[in-house]
Amino acid sequence: MKQNSWYMRFFAVVIAGILAAINFSCAKNNGDIGVWFGLWKVSSITVDGTADHKYKGNMFFAFQNTAFEQKIVADDHSTMQEVGVWEESGGKIVVTFPDSRYEPADGYMLGGGERNELSYEVISSTRINLTLVTPQEKTVVYALEKW
Predict the structure, then answer these.
(1) What is the pLDDT of residues 84-113, one digit of tens each?
(2) Total domains present in the chain
(3) What CATH number corresponds to the domain at position 131?
(4) I need a labelling partner for 118 at 20 to 30 A (CA). Which of 14, 44, 46, 74 fits?
């Protein structure tokens, strides 16, 4: 009987440890960021209504809690990542890159060191258009698809 009791306690401790690890490993966002959460592929970019033919379809945006990531995947599968913060406010999302080491690459219109205000149109839970008016008064539309 004593040996059974030891196994039961050991089993209970192992189960409690597993449950604690699962509980503490889950992201706790203190709020739902809704449709934004996750990885989005930039399927196309238009500038002033004209498709950007230089864009290779290799850029992704990721949203989690307040973190924003822009990732560009090269032909050799290497990646270039820019990391910033984002918030949703007044029908827009605002993306900033407070650390100059992780600012966006030239040519993709999001400005490092500045406040990027993008209006959005939710087409469905898997498609969103983000619109940015640059300091040069260009209107850039990023068509996103949930990835």
Answers:
(1) 999 998 889 999 888 877 777 666 678 766
(2) 1
(3) 2.40.128.280
(4) 74
